[in-house]
Specification:
By secondary structure, the protein is mainly alpha-helical. It has 4 helices and 2 strands, in the order E-E-H-H-H-H. A hairpin with a 2-residue loop joins strand 1 and strand 2.
Amino acid sequence: ILVREGFPPNYLDSIVYVVHDKLYDKSTAGIELLKDIGGIWQLLYLFIIVPKPIRDGFYSLISKYRFKIFGHRNYCIIPSPELRQKFLM
């Protein structure tokens, strides 16, 4: 899917979210993902009206300083089989 959409096969620069064979990256991927999670998170879908270059600029800024903003853990969770099925590997 990545190669078909013009991304390198080992693309690791951003989150990539695929829904019904449509690929989203960077801020759009995050917004689409939060919409699909539902609940109060779907209210953040309103940011889709902000032009993508501006959203992606904020996305890059937050990703650059994410550990300072959100903290850092020295461990990773081990996903359950159900959670693992949601990721391309």
